Amino acid sequence: MTGAQPVRVLLADDQTLVRAAFAMLVESAPDMEVVGQAGTGREAVEQARTRRADLIVMDIRMPDLDGIEATRLLAADEDLAGVKVLMLTTYDTDEHVVEALRAGASGFLVKDTKPAELLDAIRTVAAGESLLSPGPTARLIARVLRAPAEPGPVPPGLAALTDRERQVLTLVARGLTNTEAAEVLGLSPLTAKTHVSRIMGKLGARDRAQLVIVAYESGLIEPGGA
Asked: What is the pTM assigned to this prediction?
């Protein structure tokens, strides 16, 4: 990343020691810097507006305003359209993970993830990709499929997808990376990435995390499907 501006990271967690540990870790990376720390979701939203953060590492549970509501406010603010949210949860079975992704989070990790993995996750999300850890993603999908609620509205753009784009979307929704999807379909990684970009454009999705939600809630992937 020579010559590139460091990723401006805002840390939001109600535990002071956790924030301090994350701050030391982030500051140890030459390609990122901590521009603020918040103890509540409301503080995170306020600081996102004043500190010009590129990415917020957001705890899903906080007082005053939790991480989900804070993310929802960030997503609704046009001035903060470029701010990414990486949600953290204590348990990868957190029942609010689906809601966090709907609210606009670009991905999530469990708090006990390895330091190097957290830094890689920040880089991934800051670069415009989403991040869904394999284990939690499988449980996320299982919860969506078990949900008793009626299927959500089908996005208008779903009918506009080509057969190949539907195949790519199905693989992305199951947690595969562009490279993995390309291998399954016999495509080049660049072609797979192009398909993903087009799919996001047609569905009006912010990132891959939103594609997961769209694919399962629209019924593109049915319970028990292969």
From this structure: 0.73
